[in-house]
Design brief:
This protein is an alpha/beta fold and 205 residues long. The chain has a single domain, classed as 3-Layer(aba) Sandwich (Rossmann fold), CATH 3.40.50.360. Helices cover 41% and strands 21% of the residues. The protein has six helices and seven strands. Helix 1 runs parallel beside helix 6.
Amino acid sequence: MKLLHIDSSPLAEVSVSRQLTSLIVEEWRRLDPAVEIIRRDLGAEPPAHLSNELLKLVRLGEDVPVSAELRAEIELSDRLIDEFLAADVVVIGAPMYNFTVSTQLKAWIDRIARAGRTFRYTANGPEGLAGGRKAIIVSSRGGIYSGDRSALDFQEPYLRAILNFMGVTDVTVIRAEGVNISPELRRQALDAARRQIGSLLPKAV
């Protein structure tokens, strides 16, 4: 069993999403000591956004001069895809920034969503190639964007959509929202998320 642990918040120890992804990984390891953890901290080491040259090469298949810098970017992209496809479970820490995902997480998604590796185009439309794995999204929000404010949520729907597009349909969201409204709401949100994790993991492992 391989678990890919993704964090994308740059907030280090004060990050709510990091606290909860760490809890998931620690509890998973307790329940399954043989699990292999692959760690990718996008907040500490964010991949660069796609460049003109990298897009031409890996997306359009154009023949472009390959510099040392471009070769390093190609190798990183391949490594990120390999990590994703090697994992049986992907735990993604996803804070909401400006109603959507962090730029660090978007850069990672842009690297792994590649035709021929994680999806392909067919006569009947796109087909995901990354099925057979489970994704757990830890969604943290400073405000409350469920219920009446869901029209402003471009975070969770996007993550579900892009994972589904790549074939990952077993997606669970652990949500902690309203964490910046007041200390009491933060405590309640974290307690609710921990309870959800506690009920989810024994069934998932």
